[in-house]
């Protein structure tokens, strides 16, 4: 059974979550009804930010079957983040078991096909155990919970406004390419300031020259100019599964030339279309970008290429279109 679509991107508790523990080896994991976690006051996830997480969505197919989108890429990205943070990576089979069990147990909370909503799935890996000094956690917890969500940006289909930050989110050769929780806390104040000025999201430039695009606070970015889709290449950007999929669709389905390179902020003036993309944002058109005294207004928000990419991506995710690349994983 699928229920009506929620509005907005917010936490809505569901009855069940999955949890496994590591204490030299991983447990099989189990479903829990309690949404609370009990951990030691000296846990490294609390003091030293030794934790990472993932985000993916389950979509209702036309027949109501929950569909996951490229979850193997989330498992690999979490393993990569865990290794960087000296956490024990959950084996891929445990990652899949946790995600499937959580989605299956909360299937009654899966929004209906065609509603524009989904069941957001959040796997999180925490360093726990008694500790005080700066050293890796002696134990770890892998938990997966889910929440029905609507669109991340309420007015996203009409185009959002971005404000370029004059502060940095992460350092070059730092943790920007990993989905570590601490990467996001530093952006909360900057996003708050942007919204107080009437903007929807903050846009970051590279931390060395403050000249090249990095990413938005909650998503990667791209621009379309002529027959080319451009997206920034930077060691500080989180590798996005949604963006990687979008680039394949742009090249193979739309016949666009795809370029991943350093993109100067001034090039926004040449963009015919611009978008933010990620698990939460999906594909959200950008209407304008403000940088200091300069404001660029995009000619199309959304533009025809962005609209078609959205149709192809969401159609693949929700089962409305064929899946020739094998990106969907049904949860039976």
Notes on the protein architecture:
The protein has 332 residues and is of the alpha+beta class. The protein folds into two domains: 17-149, D-amino Acid Aminotransferase, Chain A, domain 1 (2-Layer Sandwich), CATH 3.30.470; 156-318, D-amino Acid Aminotransferase, Chain A, domain 2 (Alpha-Beta Barrel), CATH 3.20.10. It has helices at 44-47, 71-84, 92-105, 182-185, 188-196, 241-252, 304-318, and strands spanning 17-22, 30-32, 51-53, 56-60, 66-69, 118-128, 139-149, 160-164, 201-205, 213-216, 220-225, 228-232, 257-261, 273-278, 282-291, 294-297, 328-330. Helix 6 (241-252) crosses helix 7 (304-318). The longest helix has 15 residues, at 304-318. It is globular, with a radius of gyration of 20 Å. The mean pLDDT is 95.
| Helix-strand topology string | EEHEEEHHEEEHHEEEEHEEEEHE
Mean pLDDT reading: 95
- Estimate the global geometry from the Cα principal axes: globular
Q: Please work out how many helical segments DSSP would assign.
A: 7
Which architecture name of the largest domain does CATH use?
Alpha-Beta Barrel
Poorly predicted residue ranges: none
Keywords:
single chain, about 325 residues, alpha+beta, D-amino Acid Aminotransferase, Chain A, domain 1, D-amino Acid Aminotransferase, Chain A, domain 2, 2 domains, 9-stranded mixed β-sheet, 8-stranded antiparallel β-sheet, about 20% helix, about 30% strand
Task: Give the secondary structure arrangement, pairings included.
Layout: E1 17-22, E2 30-32, H1 44-47, E3 51-53, E4 56-60, E5 66-69, H2 71-84, H3 92-105, E6 118-128, E7 139-149, E8 160-164, H4 182-185, H5 188-196, E9 201-205, E10 213-216, E11 220-225, E12 228-232, H6 241-252, E13 257-261, E14 273-278, E15 282-291, E16 294-297, H7 304-318, E17 328-330
Parallel strand pairs: 8-9, 8-15, 12-13
Antiparallel strand pairs: 1-2, 1-7, 3-6, 4-5, 4-6, 5-17, 6-7, 9-10, 11-12, 11-14, 14-15, 15-16
Helix pairs in contact: 6-7
């Amino acid at each position: 059974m699928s229920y009506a679509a929620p509005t907005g991107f917010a936490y809505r508790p569901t009855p069940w979550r999955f949890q496994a523990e590591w204490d030299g080896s991983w447990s099989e994991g189990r479903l829990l009804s309690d949404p609370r976690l009990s951990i030691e006051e000296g846990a490294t996830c609390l003091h030293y930010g030794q934790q990472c997480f993932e985000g993916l969505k389950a979509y209702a197919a036309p027949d109501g079957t929950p569909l996951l989108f490229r979850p193997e890429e989330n498992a690999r990205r979490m393993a990569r983040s865990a290794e960087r943070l000296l956490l024990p990576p959950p084996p891929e089979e445990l990652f899949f078991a946790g995600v499937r069990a959580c989605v299956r147990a909360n299937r009654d909370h899966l929004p209906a096909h065609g509603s524009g909503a989904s069941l957001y799935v959040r796997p999180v890996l925490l360093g726990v155990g008694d500790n005080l000094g700066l050293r890796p956690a002696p134990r770890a917890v892998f938990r997966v919970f889910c929440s029905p969500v609507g669109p991340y940006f309420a007015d996203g289909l009409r185009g959002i406004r971005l404000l370029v930050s004059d502060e940095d989110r992460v350092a070059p050769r730092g943790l920007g390419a990993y989905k570590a929780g601490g990467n996001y806390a530093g952006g909360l104040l900057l996003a708050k300031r942007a919204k107080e000025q009437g903007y929807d999201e903050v846009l970051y430039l590279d931390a060395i020259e403050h000249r090249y695009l990095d990413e938005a606070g909650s998503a990667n970015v791209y621009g379309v100019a002529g027959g080319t889709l451009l997206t920034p290449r930077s060691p500080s950007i989180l590798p996005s599964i949604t963006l990687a999929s979008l680039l394949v669709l742009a090249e193979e389905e739309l016949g666009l030339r795809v370029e991943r390179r350093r993109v100067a902020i001034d090039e926004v003036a040449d963009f015919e279309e611009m978008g933010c993309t990620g698990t939460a944002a999906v594909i959200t058109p950008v209407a304008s970008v403000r940088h200091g005294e300069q404001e660029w207004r995009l000619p199309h928000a959304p533009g025809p290429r962005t609209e078609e990419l959205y149709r192809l991506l969401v159609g693949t995710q929700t089962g409305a279109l064929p899946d020739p690349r094998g990106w969907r994983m049904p949860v039976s």
